[in-house]
Amino acid sequence: MSRRGRLDAVVVGGGVVGAACALALAGLDLSVALVEGREPPRWSANAPDLRVYAFAPDNAALLEALGIWASVRNARAQPYRRMRVWDASGGGELSFDADLLGRDQLGWIIENDLLVDRLWAALPAAGVQLHCPARIESMEQDAEGVRLRLDDGSRLEARVAIAADGAGSTLRGLAGVGVSAHDYGQRGVVAFVETERSNELTAWQRFLPDGPLAFLPFSDHLSSIVWTLPTAEAERVVALEEVAFNRELTSAFGARLGEVRVVSSRAAFPLRRQLAETYVAGRVLLMGDAAHVVHPLAGQGVNLGLRDVARLRANVMDAQSRRADWTSPHRLARWSRQCRSENAAAAYAFDGINRLFSNDEMHATLLRGFTLGLAGKVPPLANLLWRRASGI
Question: Has keyword Nucleotide-binding (predicted)?
Answer without folding.
Answer: no
